[in-house]
Amino acid sequence: MPAIPAAASQSSFRESRRELTSVLAPIERRCLIWMAERLPPFINSDHLTILALVSLVVAGACYALTPVWPAAPDFVVVCLAANWFGDSLDGTVARVRRQPRPRYGFYVDHVVDAIGAASLLGGLALSGFMAPVVALALLSAYLLLCVEVFLASQTIGTFTMSYFGVGPTELRILLALGTLAVSSHPAPVIAGHAVRLFDLGGVIGACGLVATFLRAAFVHTRMLARAEPRPAAPKAA
């Protein structure tokens, strides 16, 4: 595998502008900086990233164990809180300590997110709370939007972390509340029909992610087309 020239690549790499406009972002940002400034020095950003990954894998395992372990959903909520702590704080710690590794952090963070999402939705598919086909559709829609976000980050220079006021933290809260709800009422009656809450939420979520992907792809394609108009054909000699 060819080595990356550290000095040259660091000078040529330009980190994308982060765009986080979720409802809780202003409060969350202040809380994260406060925690990062008080975190023990022996805990670094890599430790927090590992915590974020392990917590989602364990959350997926807890979902999968729900049919034989009724208390598993409670542990899912704990894992989601641990994931928020690790995933949200790792980059903040690096910035507060002035130890940024933008290429490494961007790459590792999103590899971890992809593994965590697959683990979480795989566990939901085995839990009985969500039909496997719905879990697969939701995972596919999530990864589709991730691809668009990463491409836009590279070509436009903007890394979008939230849409319509909803970001990762808000999604964790909704998932935690849904988990607590389905542990006691797995299939509430809606319009006279028993509907699994996570099936309903999963279908709505998948449709919303696909719609967001299509809108973002259209907007960014038009933006890039205007920025790079088709060159005029060369005149014949």
Summarize the structure.
The protein is mainly alpha-helical. Helix content is 70%, strand content 4%. Strands 1-2 form a two-stranded parallel sheet. A two-stranded antiparallel ribbon has the order 3-4.
Overview of this protein structure:
By secondary structure, the protein is mostly helical. The chain has one domain: Up-down Bundle (Four Helix Bundle (Hemerythrin (Met), subunit A)). The protein contains eight helices and four strands. It has helices spanning 6-12, 25-38, 45-65, 72-96, 102-127, 132-155, 168-184, 197-227; strands at residues 17-19, 158-160, 189-190, 193-194. The strands form two sheets. A two-stranded parallel ribbon has the order 1-2. A two-stranded antiparallel sheet has the order 3-4. The model has no long low-confidence stretch (mean pLDDT 89).
CATH topology grouping: Four Helix Bundle (Hemerythrin (Met), subunit A)
The largest sheet is:
2 strands, parallel
Report the uncertain regions: none
Sequence of strands across the biggest β-sheet = 1-2
Q: What would you say the CATH architecture is?
A: Up-down Bundle
Helical residues, percent = 55-70%
Number of helical regions = 8
Number of strands: 4
Radius of gyration: 21 Å
What gross morphology would you assign? Answer: globular
The succession of helices and strands, N to C, reads HEHHHHHEHEEH
- Domain unit count: 1
Distinctive features:
237 residues, Four Helix Bundle (Hemerythrin (Met), subunit A), 4 strands
SSE blueprint and pairings:
Elements: H1 6-12, E1 17-19, H2 25-38, H3 45-65, H4 72-96, H5 102-127, H6 132-155, E2 158-160, H7 168-184, E3 189-190, E4 193-194, H8 197-227
Parallel strand pairs: 1-2
Antiparallel strand pairs: 3-4
